[in-house]
Design a protein that fits this description.
Elements lengths: L6 H23 L7 H26 L3 H7 L9 H10 L17 H25 L3 H30 L1
């Protein structure tokens, strides 16, 4: 598989990451006790991931013309090929394997929250690599907003995880 991606493909991957995240959080919410802080957190995160998917879809639609794609790509993107290798691993299903279930019905709340933390961290790394690929400021600002939201997810998950493990 190739390691070069156009901006349309990058945003398509970002949309898929958000869909996968929403599904993960929804499925996880079905496992934890319905009246727990963890359940509320997981439902909220699923809703936020759906919003993120819509934001990426909108950005993708805005840049779909080839002329615009050519003009927003950063010519210095990934000089060492690291981001390209990362994107390739995502596309190959090595980072976000949608064919392999992450959860079973017996997962503890702690395990689910730790998996959620890992997914959020991986998402941030991916979005930072998207940001490096793009030279258009408006799109970079939108990606920054999503990165900050993903970082707030980490803080929120960590808080709930810490409170669960203190009990």
């Amino acid at each position: 598989m190739r390691s070069k991606f156009n901006i349309d493909e990058i945003f398509e991957i970002a949309e898929q990451i958000e869909r996968n995240g929403a599904k993960f959080y929804s499925d996880s919410a079905d496992i934890v006790p319905a009246n727990s802080p963890s359940h509320k957190l997981l439902i909220t995160l699923a809703e936020m991931e759906i919003k993120h998917e819509a934001i990426f879809a909108s950005m993708r639609k805005d840049i779909i013309s080839q002329e615009k794609m050519d003009s927003i790509m950063n010519p210095y993107f990934d000089p060492d090929g690291i981001a390209g290798m990362y994107l390739k691993s995502i596309a190959d299903g090595q980072v976000f394997d949608i064919n392999q279930p992450l959860l079973n019905r017996n997962e503890s709340t702690e395990t689910i929250l730790k998996l959620a933390l890992d997914r959020e961290k991986d998402s941030i790394i991916f979005y930072l690599s998207i940001k490096e690929a793009i030279s258009e400021n408006l799109i970079q600002k939108n990606i920054d907003i999503i990165i900050k939201e993903e970082m707030s997810h980490i803080a929120y998950i960590t808080s709930v995880l810490y409170n669960n493990t203190k009990r």
